[in-house]
Design brief:
The protein is an alpha+beta fold and about 400 residues long. The protein is about 60% helix and about 10% strand. The protein has a six-stranded antiparallel β-sheet, with helices on both faces. Strand 5 and strand 6 form a beta hairpin. Helix 10 packs across helix 13. The radius of gyration is 25 Å and the shape is globular. The protein starts with a strand and ends with a helix.
Length: about 400
């Protein structure tokens, strides 16, 4: 059975003007992206330790993201890392569910800390498990809360040493077996030398070279941020795309013969048709619907800094949802405008059905990415305003917020 372990690590210099926001967004992405395994009744999968003690499932990813943004502003480094196995390897190691992966990184996080010269009592870390097909992996962020000297460089040998130590510790039993087979068995696994480890790695790669090279290429040629931007094709089914291609074509045929194709300028009947498509889309794609709900919740938190009256909050909720749905409607209309333009191009070599499918797929994928952006920007806007205003909601706003989230948890 082929076995492999890949480790990557880097950080953005705290002095860079975009680092604090980038670190905030990074944590949001690893906690909520498609493929991220989530805690029951929570919209994210972030866990870890911000102080010595028991492993913690964070109430929200934002509480960690805010700390990461603040320590970046203070000149501390937030390290971003990825640990990945092949699916078969994870299964052989007994990493079969979310709890197993949580326990794995809890056991091995000290290796990451030690090689980055972070004392365990000063270590803060958070992780998310992404159960991606063929390469389940952990995204881990960590920092030294006592750091006082700004760092701008990590020697490439440090991630390499961490990878080797993780292999030694993770595959101890396999290395023993390998050494025994090679008549090089020694009493303690700590005595395994780098030369034997390199032999063992070469041996693992030979077991399934094609699969290992594919995984290695992906993780060594791309950084951990690009690994978060996995194509979203797995979030839309081909049959669903075909249905949306037909719906778009039907909408195109029922568009007014003149006038700008902008939502607010559409005739009432056409608006109703577009509105129905938006609702169908939200019912059809749970991920898009969740991003819209997260956007609405983030906007409501911002509103609660100023006004916490339940009736007005109810009105605002409706307003924010309408705002998000109008954005979706205009993106649908953008695709219709593209269809009209392509109809005028006599040189197009695509079959009409293929072109409709491609446009529908592009629209759906871009909407998923755009909705993520709306949500993240709304969260950042709230954090900025909360900090300026003293950083808290009124008592009535807190009560309202907790009741809403309690209801959402029960609905799940």
């Amino acid at each position: 059975m082929a076995m492999s372990l890949i480790y990557k690590q880097r950080f953005f210099h705290p002095n860079h003007r975009k680092t604090a926001v980038s670190n905030y967004v990074h944590i949001g992405y690893i906690a909520t992206r498609p493929g991220a395994v989530r805690h029951e009744n929570l919209g994210h999968g972030l866990f870890g330790k911000l102080k010595p003690g028991s492993l913690q499932a964070f109430d929200s990813w934002q509480e960690v993201a805010r700390i990461a943004r603040q320590i970046s502003r203070e000149g501390k480094n937030m390290y971003r890392s990825v640990i990945s196995f092949r699916t078969e390897t994870a299964f052989e190691l007994g990493l079969t569910d979310f709890t197993d992966w949580q326990q794995y990184i809890e056991q091995h996080i000290s290796t990451l800390a030690a090689h980055n010269q972070i004392k365990i009592e000063n270590l803060c870390w958070a992780a998310a498990f992404h159960n991606e097909r063929n390469h389940p992996h952990l995204h881990v962020v960590f920092w030294d809360k006592s750091q006082t000297i700004m760092k701008n460089f990590t020697h490439p040998e440090i991630p390499n040493r961490i990878r080797k130590q993780l292999i030694k510790d993770t595959f101890a039993y396999k290395i023993r077996e390998f050494c025994a087979q090679r008549d090089q068995f020694k009493t303690g696994i700590t005595e395994v030398t780098d030369s034997i480890l390199e032999e063992f790695e070469a041996y693992m790669k030979r077991l399934n070279p094609k699969a290992f090279r594919a995984l290695q290429h992906r993780f060594e040629q791309e950084d951990e941020d690009s690994l978060l931007r996995f194509p979203k094709h797995h979030l839309i089914e081909p049959d669903s795309v075909k249905q949306w291609a037909k719906k778009l074509f039907d909408l195109r045929r029922n568009m007014p013969k003149s006038g700008r194709l902008v939502y607010k300028l559409l005739p009432s009947e056409t608006k109703q048709r577009v509105d129905a498509m938006v609702q169908d889309l939200l019912n059809d794609n749970r991920y898009l619907a969740q991003m819209v709900e997260n956007y609405v919740q983030a906007k409501l938190k911002l509103a609660m800094l100023y006004d916490s009256h339940p009736d007005r909050l109810g009105t605002l909720r409706t307003s924010y949802r309408n705002e998000a749905e109008k954005r979706i409607a205009n993106r649908i209309l953008q695709t219709v405008r593209t269809m009209i333009q392509l109809e005028k191009e006599a040189t197009s070599s695509f079959r009409e059905v293929d072109r409709q499918y491609a446009l529908a797929e592009q629209m759906l994928l871009e909407l998923l990415t755009a909705a993520e952006g709306w949500m993240m920007r709304a969260e950042l806007n709230y954090d900025d305003k909360a900090r300026v205003m003293g950083g808290d909601l009124s008592k009535l706003a807190k009560k309202e917020w907790l009741l809403r989230h309690k209801d959402r948890g029960m609905e799940r």
